[in-house]
Amino acid sequence: MGCISSRDKATTSDGTKKIRKPKPWRHTEPITRAQLNKMREEFWDTAPHYGGTREIWDALRAAVDADLNLAQTIIDSAGVIVQNHDLTVCYDERGAKYELPNYVMSEPTNLISDRES
What we know:
The protein is of the alpha+beta class. The chain has 3 helices and 5 strands.
């Protein structure tokens, strides 16, 4: 039990969750930067078709591409409710769920150069 003055370091002053970098991940087989970029583009092109609003998807994409401080500002400004600190699961103010795969947010541990493939 915490005292009234204690605050979880994972939350902001208004009680919303602070976002942080996603955990390292590994693709099933070594992947090149070109393949990773193609996967990311396909995700962002099709994501709005699975629900939610285009504005929130755009805000999530901008947040993923930004540094952590700017990403936090984007998320807060768009009214995104963060369930997981790494943005893998979020909600908008109407309750629509947004799920982001790790590959859109960070590099895999087994990324290889295009020349190695």
